[in-house]
Design goal:
By secondary structure, the chain is mostly helical. The chain has one domain. It is about 70% helix and about 0% strand. Strands 1-2 form a two-stranded antiparallel ribbon. α3 packs parallel to α5 (about 75-105) and α8 packs across α9 (about 195-225). The protein is flat and about 55 Å long.
């Protein structure tokens, strides 16, 4: 579809479609807030900024999306896109700083229970952060995925192998599953990356998961031993 046609379709989006896309965003919004809550309960030595601050920033950034969904008022696609990318940058920085600080403070931490708790929280954050990335980058985001008929672009789900002739729609839970399996199996399972950016994201997620599981949990087990 030409870019001019896509832009026109975005501007003349029916109210029903707008409401559908807004409804599908409730799960990613909940996932984003959960990341902020996890950061809030992380040990203080793993927080590069006060624990309450990321959650407060998330609430401020998410407010226009929540208001638009509750009032069914149309929010321009580019505004939604910019807000989402800023949030992705924020949660990614939270994850990266938490993992880095955990590794830096690892030699001086002899509390196995604390290490295991921190590792579990950061591992869960890793899954949530990358599920948000997959949700937002696949096909250019929810709106563009809809305009393209939800055909495989960056990620190919099993339902899209035949060109998605059934009209199947991937929801946030599907991207959460991709992130979960990537963090546990450390490789694609039933959903395959098709573009370089999707492959890079999967490699980074697996690398973070390996760092948490092998280095940090291994350290805790040695302490217990």
């Amino acid at each position: 579809m030409p870019e001019s046609t896509k832009a026109a379709n975005e501007q003349t989006m029916p109210a029903g479609l707008q409401h559908t896309l807004q409804t599908r965003r409730w799960a990613p919004i909940a996932g984003t807030l959960l990341i902020g809550i996890i950061y809030l309960i992380l040990p203080a030595h793993l927080q590069i900024i006060p624990g309450w601050m990321p959650l407060a920033l998330e609430i401020v950034l998410l407010s226009p999306l929540v208001f638009s969904a509750l009032t069914r008022r149309r929010l321009h696609h580019m505004v939604t896109r910019v807000i989402t990318l800023i949030i992705l940058g924020l949660v990614t920085a939270m994850l990266a700083s938490g993992v880095a600080l955990l590794i830096i403070t690892l030699p001086g931490n002899s509390h196995a229970e604390s290490l295991l708790q921190a590792a579990a929280l950061l591992w869960a954050t890793n899954v949530l952060v990358f599920s948000l990335w997959y949700w937002e980058i696949d096909g250019g985001g929810p709106l563009k995925r809809h305009l393209s008929g939800h055909k495989a672009t960056d990620l190919m789900f099993p339902q899209q192998v035949d060109g998605n002739t059934s009209g199947w729609v991937p929801l946030f839970l599907d991207y959460l599953f991709v992130a979960f399996t990537g963090a546990t199996a450390l490789s694609p399972t039933d959903t395959y990356p098709l573009t370089q950016r999707a492959k890079i994201l999967m490699m980074i997620e697996a690398l973070i998961s390996v760092s948490i599981i092998i280095l940090l949990v291994g350290r805790a087990v040695n302490i217990l031993g």
